[in-house]
Each structure stands twice: as structure tokens, then as C-alpha cells.
Write a structure and sequence with these properties.
- The complex is a heterodimer of chains A (about 190) and B (about 270).
- Chain A has a single domain, classed as PhyR, sigma-like (SL) domain (Butyryl-CoA Dehydrogenase, subunit A, domain 3), CATH 1.20.140.160.
- In chain A, about 75% of the residues lie in helices and about 0% in strands.
- Chain A contains nine helices and no strands.
- Chain A starts with a helix and ends in a 10-residue tail after the last helix.
- Chain B is α+β, with helices and mostly antiparallel strands.
- Chain B has two domains: about 80 residues, no CATH class; about 150 residues, 2-Layer Sandwich (Phosphorylase Kinase, domain 1).
- Chain B contains eight helices and eight strands, in the order ααααααβαβββββββα.
- Chain B has an eight-stranded antiparallel β-sheet with strand order 1-2-3-4-8-7-6-5, with helices on both faces.
- The radius of gyration of chain B is 25 Å and the shape is extended.
- Classes of the chains: A mainly alpha (about 190), B alpha+beta (about 270).
- The interface between A and B is large, with 58 and 51 residues.
Chain lengths: ~190, ~270
């Protein structure tokens, strides 16, 4: 690539992708919980995005595109590390979520208000990866169902059911932390 | 609407995702039902509190510095890896002649296969294949099993999806086999054979043949075979059936290349 083309490409990347650094960093942080791992995932996401920037369609949603890369890298790491365990853990959390509260009652909201951010973060980290991803994208990054479906590569119906289960499981985990327990074991 | 029915729409309503036709019903119910109003209030407060408790953190300066220096390094690698071509007049003439031929061939193929761009009416299976392809095409190692042996990859995938799979050799076309991975298509086990051409990944999906609704894709008859094609999210999709197995090529490598891959598949069948 000629140096002037390189400069143009870099400028475009700067204006289109690097403006979303904070969103990507925070999503990585909420997905991994571990700062070092989040920094690593953040850097890999942008390097991958830069390498494949020719595939990005100008005018489309760059933040969602970056989240798609982040999500793929995240899920791939999980699969490489502990895939069978993830499936098993998801089943367990689904079962527990089904017996949990259906909607948050007011005492529960008060409970979360009193909790330390660190405990809430730990409860999110305890969710199975696929549920954690939709909860982080919907509730913290405020992505739409359609965006999440594209990011996670699944139908909108699946997004809705994962979101429902994820939120229920989060409430169960928050209650456990609030009771002073160690909460569920954190997932990778 | 009863409170029980309302519970089904609670999540989508609070997320602002409920379609307009249902919103009126929900609002009507909420006006008459204080208990459900309270539930909505609690649900919304819960989300607000969650966001308040975990506000966005700024990117640490050392992390941003590291990223910018890694990007600059990637720029340098690019410049080193792609020096300007130094061609003589003869090479230019040859290149020009070759591009004329390519454009002509491309035009004919383009005419033979009219490619609809798929929007909201994309068949779910095609959307799923494209998402699956895009998810892994961005990874450093898009294959679960890394191997350039067609036989090895075929056996590995067959073993996992439980049906025969053909893994064509595209190396004469300058396409490298990277390996295979196992995935799910419409809830059923499927195999993906992963190839690479330059910086583009080509996925060849192999899945059990069944009557999925593929309306919206263009039907093309070539040499007695029926192929279906379409374009979605910038990726081209080419589908066909072979015995009990359905195949789909997905990539953004271009129609001519994809069609060549399908042709090699049929020729070596």
C-alpha cells in the first residue's frame, strides 16, 4: 500500500473506529472482569478491525461492527479454554434462573443500590459467557436487540431469551452476594 | 390484556423494543393496573441503577498508547510487505490484456448469476450462515482444526457431523485450505471448511439437507444443477445440494471467485 493510501486509511480508521475506544474498552472490561485480559481483548479487537477495515461498509454502524469482533474474540477464547464446562454451567444457571424472581421487586432495587460496584461486577462475571454478553450489550452498552443479534450472530428471539435468562440469573447472583455469600463461581 | 399476558411483553416494553401494534395494548393495560405499573417502574429502576453503579471507565492512557503504537507497527508491516510493483511496458500490456479478459468473463458470469441484495427478507438460514462466517472470519485462527490436508479435514468434519462431506482442493486457484470447524445451522450440527485467499476468508458450510425456506435467494440453473445465490451484509452466498448434504459458500471474495469454487466442487464430484 502506498504511504498516502496508508495515511488516508489510518485517518478514516481514527475517525470511524477509534472514536469508540471507550465503549469497546468498557464492554471488554465487563465481559472479562480481569483488567489485563480486558486490555488484551481491547487491543486485539482494534488491531483486527484495522486489519480488516476494508471489510467495513462506510456508513454502517461501526460500534456494532467493533462489538462483533470483540464478541467473536471473546467467545473464541472461552471455547478454547473451557467449552464443555461453559455448556454445563449455562444449563445450571438456566435452571437456577427459572426458580428465581420473575421481576425485580423494590427491595431488590434497594439492595443493588446498596451494593458495591465491585460486587455487581463480580455477579456479572459469574454469568455464563453467552448470557453475560447479551446483558452487557443491552443493559450497559444499550445496544438494540437487532444490533445484539448481529453482534452475537443469532436470531432476535435467541437474544430475547438469553437476555431474559441472563437478567434473571444476574438477580439470583446479586441476591447471593447481598446475603454476604461468595456468590456463584465466576466464569472464565 | 391480563397481567399474565403483560408479563410476556414486559422485557421488550422496558427495552423500548415492543412493536407499535402491541405498545397500545400494553399502555392500555398499564393505565388500569397499578401492580404492573409498579413492576415496570422497578424493572426500569433496576436497569438505571445497574448503569449508575457501573459507569463507563476511561481508557487508561497506557492502553491507548500501546494500541496506537501497535497500529503504527501494523502500518509499517503493510508498507514493508507491499512494495510498489516495478513493471516493464510488456508487463503492463499483459496485465491490461488479462484484465480485459477478466472483465469480459466476469461480465458473462455476472449476467448468468443475477445476485439479489438481501435485506429484511433474507431467509433465516442464509442470515445465519453469513453471521457464522463473519464471526469466525475475523479471528486469527478461524479453523478449529488447522490442517491443509483435504482428506484430514474431510474425515475430521465427517466424524463430527455424522455424514459424508467433500472438501475440494482449491489450491490451483490460489486458495489455501486452513482447516475445519464444527458449528450449528438452524439448530443442527454442521461443518465449516475454511479457506483463505489473500486477506479474504471463504467458508464452505456442509449441513444435513432439509427443506429450509430459501425464498428470497436467486435460483440459478447451471449444467443441470440448481444453485441459489444472494448477497447479505456485504457477503456473497452460494448454496446447493449434493446427495444428502447441503453446501453453502460464503465470502466477500467476489462472485467470480465463488462461482469458480462451486465449479471445481462439481467437476471433482
Amino acid at each position: 500500500m502506498r504511504p498516502d493510501e496508508q495515511d488516508r486509511r489510518r485517518r478514516e480508521f481514527e475517525e470511524t473506529a477509534l472514536v469508540h475506544m471507550t465503549s469497546v474498552y468498557n464492554a471488554a472490561l465487563r465481559l472479562t472482569r480481569n483488567k489485563m485480559e480486558a486490555e488484551d481483548l481491547f487491543q486485539e479487537t482494534f488491531l483486527r478491525a484495522y486489519r480488516f477495515f476494508h471489510q467495513f461498509r462506510p456508513g454502517s454502524n461501526c460500534r456494532a461492527w467493533l462489538f462483533t469482533i470483540l464478541h467473536s474474540l471473546f467467545i473464541n477464547r472461552i471455547r478454547q479454554a473451557s467449552y464443555p464446562q461453559v455448556d454445563f454451567e449455562e444449563e445450571r444457571v438456566y435452571r437456577e434462573a427459572r426458580v428465581g424472581a420473575v421481576v425485580p421487586d423494590n427491595p431488590e432495587v434497594g439492595l443493588v443500590k446498596r451494593m458495591a460496584a465491585e460486587d455487581i461486577q463480580r455477579a456479572i462475571a459469574a454469568l455464563p459467557p453467552k448470557l453475560r454478553a447479551v446483558v452487557v450489550l443491552a443493559d450497559l452498552e444499550q445496544c438494540s436487540y437487532r444490533e445484539i443479534a448481529e453482534i452475537c450472530g443469532c436470531p432476535i428471539g435467541t437474544v430475547m431469551s438469553r437476555l431474559y435468562r441472563g437478567r434473571q440469573a444476574l438477580r439470583v447472583a446479586l441476591k447471593e452476594y447481598a446475603k454476604g455469600g461468595d456468590g456463584p463461581q465466576e466464569q472464565t | 390484556m391480563t397481567s399474565h399476558e403483560f408479563a410476556r411483553y414486559l422485557q421488550a416494553y422496558c427495552d423500548g423494543e415492543l412493536d407499535a401494534s402491541k405498545v397500545l395494548d400494553v399502555v392500555g393495560h398499564l393505565e388500569a393496573c397499578p401492580a404492573c405499573r409498579q413492576t415496570v417502574e422497578a424493572e426500569r429502576t433496576f436497569r438505571d441503577v445497574l448503569r449508575d453503579k457501573l459507569p463507563p471507565e476511561p481508557v487508561p492512557s497506557h492502553v491507548e498508547r500501546q494500541l496506537r503504537s501497535a497500529l503504527a507497527e501494523q502500518d509499517q508491516e503493510h508498507t514493508r510487505a507491499a512494495p510498489l510493483p516495478v513493471w516493464g511496458r510488456r508487463s503492463w500490456a499483459l496485465a491490461l490484456a488479462a484484465s480485459v479478459v477478466l472483465i469480459a468473463v466476469g461480465g458473462i458470469l455476472g449476467y448468468l448469476i443475477a445476485q439479489p441484495r438481501l435485506g429484511a427478507g433474507v431467509p433465516p438460514m442464509a442470515a445465519e450462515l453469513v453471521s457464522e462466517h463473519m464471526k469466525f472470519a475475523l479471528l486469527e485462527n478461524p479453523a478449529e482444526l488447522s490442517s491443509n490436508s483435504t482428506q484430514h479435514v474431510a474425515l475430521w468434519v465427517q466424524d463430527r457431523i455424522g455424514q459424508p462431506v467433500r472438501v475440494p482442493d482449491y489450491s490451483p486457484n490460489g486458495i489455501t485450505l486452513l482447516g475445519g470447524r464444527v458449528t450449528r445451522v438452524s439448530g443442527r450440527r454442521a461443518g465449516t471448511i475454511v479457506y483463505e485467499k489473500g486477506r479474504n476468508i471463504i467458508s464452505l458450510f456442509a449441513f444435513p439437507r432439509y427443506g429450509a425456506d430459501l425464498s428470497g435467494l436467486q435460483e440459478v440453473r447451471r449444467e443441470g444443477r440448481i444453485l441459489r445465490s444472494g448477497e447479505y451484509r456485504g457477503q456473497q452466498i452460494l448454496l446447493w445440494e449434493n446427495g444428502e448434504t447441503g453446501y453453502a459458500l460464503v465470502s466477500d471474495v467476489g462472485w467470480d471467485e465463488l462461482y469458480q469454487c462451486a465449479r471445481v466442487f462439481f467437476e471433482t464430484a
